[in-house]
Amino acid sequence: MENQTYNILLYYCYAEITDPEIYREEHHLFCVENNIRGRIIISSEGLNGTVSGLMEDCEKYMAYVKSDPRFAKTEFKIDTHHQHAFAKIHVRAKEEIVHSSLRHINPNIRTGKHLAPKEFKALKDQDDVVILDVRSNYEHELGKFKNAITLDIENFRDFPDKVKELEHLKDKKILTYCTGGIKCEKASAYLLEQGFEDVYQLHGGIIKYGIEAEGEDFEGKCYVFDNRLAVDINKVNPTVVSTCHVCNAKSDRMVNCANPTCNIHVPICEKCGWELEGACSDACKDHPEKRPYNGTGYYQKKTNGYNPYKGLNRVPNKAKIKASMK
Q1: Which of 13, 58, 178, 280 is catalytic?
Q2: Spatial CB neighbours of 141, under 8 Å, sequence gap ≥ 6
Q3: How far is the C-alpha of 63 from the C-alpha of 144, rounded, in Å?
Q4: For the segment 99-138, what is each residue's pLDDT rounded down to a tens digit?
Q5: For the domain that residue 77 is a member of, what is the CATH number?
Q6: Which helix (H) or strand (E) holds 160?
Q7: What pLDDT digit, counting tens, does each position of 231-246 carry?
Q8: 272-289: buried (b, 16+ CB within 10 Å) or exposed (e) per residue?
Q9: Does residue 178 carry a catalytic annotation?
Q10: Domain that holds residue 29
Q11: 28 phi/psi in degrees, rounded to 5
Q12: What is the pTM of this model?
């Protein structure tokens, strides 16, 4: 096994930020100076990120985030890895920290009851309980909790339109879950707003459930938003539930289609992956813009000419940053 000297952090915090663009600049600068890479969203409602770095750099980063009183309650889901899970750092200011059509909801005012992984595990199989996956199709098709209800959605912003399909479950306990917990904060709040009375959420999401409850009864793999694409969760009774997009054989090997104009995220077995050169179909295989396939099915955006100062209004010590980027 390769040396696991890196951490991958997944986190979010709903907190008021009155100056998201100014804070974005400060946050970006800290990441560059400390060789933190990944994707971070800053908005007036809080921050959301998944980043990677050497263990000691991640410790500094977590301390930096929590040193701000606005984000002191932030919980980090921590995984180990043998290298960076990202090629560069992006810190962006956006209107929301997770794209939804629920901007009016503030989870700090009202949201579903948080369940620790062990509490979720103890409750999920009771007769009056419904487990609800609030993630997108490509995520729950790769893996989901046993007996969970899934919704046919391409993006979380479609969630409110699907809630009407759940009207017959209003007398049940609704246990929502997602990858890291952030979507459930608003999804569970919206269910309460729509008249569901007994609503819960898996605190820390699937990732924390895997860490603290060994992932029992999570079937398949969990889709993640870094270059790993999919991770194992279940250490107790693992199984494969997804099938190859091409041949329908059992496969949990997640691939981005090599055709960048398609770029769908689907399971493709290793045999079909090599035969179609990472594409999801013959048409995509023959596409003139098809990317070279290296067997992973992950394609990092080109980083040639990447400028870590892009978007920064002030210029820090360039020598320090240059050294930290090595």
Answers
A1: 178
A2: 242, 267
A3: 33
A4: 998 999 999 999 999 999 999 999 999 999 999 999 999 9
A5: 3.30.70.100
A6: helix 159-162
A7: 999 999 999 999 999 9
A8: bbeebebbbeeebbebee
A9: yes
A10: 6-97
A11: -60, -45
A12: 0.89
